[in-house]
Amino acid sequence: MKALALHACVLWVLVLGTLPIQADEISELKEELQRLRDEYQRKLNELDQRLSDLEDPKDAGELKVLQAHEAKEALPPAKPGFAFEGYFRSGFGVSNSGQSAQAFKAPGADAKYRLGNEVDTYMETTFRQEIPALPDQRFYIQTRLAYSIPENGAAVDSTFSVREVFAEAQGVIDDQPDMAFWAGQRFYDRYDVHINDYYYLDMSGFGGGITGIDMGVGELWLALLGGTIDQLNSDGSVRSGDTVAKRSLDLRWKGIPAPKGEIMLWVSPSFIDGETTKEGVSVEDSGGAAFGLIHESRDEQEAWWNRFVLQYGFGPSSNFKSELIPDEVNEENPERQTRTKDSWRFRVLNHNQWQGESWGLMSLLLWEERDFGAQVDSGSRWLSAGIRPVWFLSRNASIALEAGLDHTDQDGGPRGELYKITLAPQISPGPLVDSRPVLRFFITYAAWTDEFEGQIAPDVYPEDQQGFSVGTQVEAWW
Predict the structure, then answer these.
(1) What is the mean pLDDT of each run of 10 residues along the chain (478 residues)?
(2) Which CATH class is domain 75-477?
């Protein structure tokens, strides 16, 4: 109303300022002003009546139809919600003998320090499509395909694998806005150490579950997982052996406040049915459970973070994974044949990452002890310590130095150490430890004790206790 009045006053001033003023022109302006006033009042009456009708309970059905129509109009288009993500690594190395480089990995260790020590090509391509939904909801579908060449420069077949095909829905319960439902095959809340590509908790596989259930203190995640027939291990290497049917219930209580950080508590009972694999390995019916605690701390600016991990599992749960690959039959000594139901594993580790203005750092300290469940010579122990400092010479240039030690001790088997050190000049987009893509040239030297002779890079160093390689590599994620 005020705007119309002001408009009328402006018109009136303009009229008064126009000479000569005609009487019929003044009359027309007055009529136009009155018409605008009538139109404005009519619009107000219509809005008042509409509001009254919507507030009337007898018109609740009409209100719901109107709300549904408005919600449909508010749905975002699907096309802008598409995302393409991925990861790859590839390179080539040459040993001091002139042969293609072979990775240095200690027998009995589940991982190796990776800088300048990866001889494969591995790639993941991830496709995610956001589905139109209400503003407070999220629906999306995701697929992940992987491709692996185990040894660059060798006559080996490449492997293709479908690693993820799942859908997730979030925000469908009003008082639980962060709760999400999912079903399909997926990477499920994995935890790993980057410098040796070691996934110490990886329950990825087929299944379904609920995440983000508000508990007042922290949140609850739960999932039912049925293993996987994925052809690749957690780190992308090609797996050997047949899996057996394993069913696991995964429960995680995350975000529990703790001194200097927060805690996640984890428990996972699992069961397997007796069967014989294609390779002739017989597995008995058995059940087990795994338990874990992860304490995570980080500073407010996230310039550093640290994770301390405790894990214990027995029976089919002792590998902390959704699938189980039984060991091969030991025909020479049946007493050393592993028995899944009697196996157990204990692990403690600490890993972290630091980021300074002109430097960065990643480190790991790990101890693991396990028993394979055989009658004799059934135990093994693994100690691992590694560090990777990075010095930034400019925004794009850096030098990385990685040093690692793996000590393994296997009952009835070898006992010794592997030492490995790598120097790698690098180029990356920014002065950050995890800035990718990174292009690097590397020089790697490794040495091991005499009991490991012929068991570390045996194709290149069958009778040696040390090795040397140089090469290039690219690693990227986006």
Answers:
(1) 41 40 63 76 73 52 41 46 96 94 96 97 97 94 95 76 97 96 97 98 96 98 87 78 85 97 98 77 87 94 93 96 72 61 95 96 98 86 98 98 97 95 98 97 98 96 97 98
(2) mainly beta
Q: Look up residue 87 and give its two tokens.
A: 């990861």
Q: Which residue has the tokens 């894990």?
A: 311
Per-domain boundaries in the chain: 2-71, 75-477
Q: What pLDDT does 184 receive?
A: 98
